[in-house]
Structure formats: C-alpha cells, structure tokens
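Per reviewer request, we include the raw input and output of the structure prediction for the construct analysed in the revised manuscript.
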Amino acid sequence: MKFKNNHIDLQERIKNANQTYFMLQTFFKNKNISKKLKLRLKNTIIDKTLTYASESWTLTKRYIKQLNIFERKVYRIILSPVYANKKENWRILTNKEIYASVKKPTIIETIRLNRLHLFGHVQGLEENRIPKRVLYMNLGTSKIER
C-alpha cells in the first residue's frame, strides 16, 4: 500500500466503516437480537475497520469530531429510541446517556490506547531495530539561515 497522508487515510477508514455499518444496518435494527450482541458486533467489526492503522494518525479536533459523530450514529441505531414517560413520547438518547449505557472506551480513547500499545512494542525492540532508532532520532531543530 502506498503512503497516504493522514486526511485521506482517515476519510477512507470512515468511509469503509460506514459501508460496513450499512451492510449490517438491518441486523442492528432487528428488535429480536439483543443489544449486547449488537454492541459486540459493532466492537469486533466496525471498530476494527475504523481503527485499522490508527496508531499513525494525527488527531485534530476536526477528525475527533468526525469519529465521535460516526460512533454515536451507530450507537443510536443499536440502542434505539427510548420512551419518555413524562412527555409520553419517544426520544433519542443524549451523548451522555449513550456513553453511560455502553460502558466502553470511546473510539478516540481506543485509538490512544492503540498508540500506547505500539509505543510499548517499539520500546521492547532491540536498540538496532529501525522503528526504535526512528523513535529516538534527533531531527534537529536549528533554523536555516538565509
């Protein structure tokens, strides 16, 4: 696979995860399947598709927002609307209610944990291995005089 910049790779990951989500949408909307199983499926298929090679991403506020929006979209379908007794109507869950009911790290926290995992892996490598040498490489901070 040729090198891609961060923006293109992230957009491609979101697109692929969205395609996977739409393939599984009838499964997620099925009332006969437990929410636990739907969440497990989301965690094993959609999240893995979305976070593939995420260790190298530079997460800007814009990307974090896009990832969170996508994640909450999937959760809202899985968790479905709830009935509000006081107002006697159906409503969608708020963001806080979603994360409280899921009890799982957000996609952003997962990406950060993946980065730490990669860092730990590189730390355990022998000193002469290229990834470890690159990690501790001195890039030089001197300015070019004109």
